[in-house]
Amino acid sequence: MNSVHQRDKKNISRRTFLKQTGRAAAALAAAGTLPVFSPATASARSDRDFDILIKGGMLYDGTLNAPGVADIGIQGDRIAATGDLGKAQAARTINARGFAVTPGFIDVHTHCDMSFQGMDSAALAGASAMMKGNYNYIYQGVTTVITGNCGLGIPRTDQWFDMAKAMSFGTNVAHLAPHGEIRADLFGVRQPAELMPAQLKTFLQRMTEELEKGAVGFSTGLEYAPGLLSATGELIELAKVTARMGRVYVTHVRNETGAVGRDGKAGVVSALEEAVLIGKKAGISVEVSHLKVMAPNNAVPASAILDIIEKARSEGLDIHADQYPYDAGSTYITHLIPNKFKANDQSLKSEFRTEKGFLEIRKALEETFSYLPAEKILIANYPAKAELEGKTVAEIARIRSKSPAECYVDMVCEPVCPMAIFFAQNMDIVAEIMKRDYVLTASDGETYTKGVFRPHPRVYGAFPRKLRMVAFDNPWMSVEKAIRSMTSLPAEKFNLNKRGKVEKGFFADVAVIDLPNFRDTATYLDPHQYAVGVKHLLINGVAAITDGIATGAGGGTALKF
Questions:
Q1: Is the pTM here over 0.85, yes or no?
Q2: Is residue 246 a contact partner of residue 187, using CB atoms and an 8 Å limit?
């Protein structure tokens, strides 16, 4: 499977990179765009000018500016100066010659909060250094994660921020108020399909509270219960409240497939049209989560979804999308069963745990397997039967001498719903989406300890993989444009003040990267492998990685709106 789904890697040689570095530096110096630092212009302290001085790296500042050789001076948690800093002194100097220097990457779509959901203070204290340090992200150069996506996760913003502070979480955290979790919290197991006026008022009040606590917006998961019950009108009213507070609406849309609906349109097309409608009616900034076309595709081209977004943008709607650079996604295995069977915790509703219910689900799955074969469903997380992790549903069926549908029903009925990896996308469509300059980079992953489950490799490698694919393996965009999709663009979209650029006055989230050798190493069958190439990583001026090794220092903070 790895040989099919892992892209061939082409090396960019160090000689080529250094040659490009030299040319760019010479051009910028000739143009006079590298200012010379004078100690008189910095806040010098005792016998040093800075706490940390990064010398001589090729600076990609997070914008579309051409890269150039520059020094970066850091005092406390801020960037104090950039340019030619001459003979400035620092308590610590990082020699970045031959390396790229970039802003720390921002992952706009993660579920890192779900890795800690339900933990008490003792469990948090006992979590591994890998978990608390968010190692699978920092080794990718990620310094900020946005959580609460897909309407899932920790419903109380202040609770999650307190948890992150208590364990000195490794990365910065911004949070989205998760619509589905809050709806379940408010209205319980028997969710109303249409909210009564009093219920909607309660929901609006609760959403306002979460935004006042610092959430950067709210998210929906309209393929998950209970979000799938929500009418468009409910979402518009919630979005209006969110818009008035200057925040963002982030949506896992109602359908991501090419299956033709009652309106005669592909499901993903209708779902994107709903997202645009909500954005326009509420006057809110919209982010479409993990933009894709899943099986059954029914010959839906990339243009069918991109045209919707681009038309809305041309009409003035502030709408972007994010994407992980793989042709497989990962979620609960109940994702493939009809919506009426799904409980709020993404497991199977109790009323369908009957022989009649099993037969009905099995019939639906037989149809699903006609366009998404059991060979393309890989079990990632199976708490009840860990020995089946890393096996496809087809392999499990052979082991158990059952049909794939029967095995799938068995898994759906487990008390804790397993998760799977679904090879349900067309890589050509993935590539077309990836080329757009309004598409942000994301992992759709969680925080992991090595060896626990078999997660999607994106949780360890999305960022280096995207950079290599678009800028090195294929000539789709410049390195600076690719880095922008990971830094200043998401910072601006989510109103992360003074993040996403290497610029004086900005927070010192800075990566020093061996760019020619920056790559993902995780695979579908062996996912627990850190990305390589990040030599140094600072988060708010705290060294998270030094000489390629995680330090365990928790430099992250809660990024409240």
A1: yes
A2: no
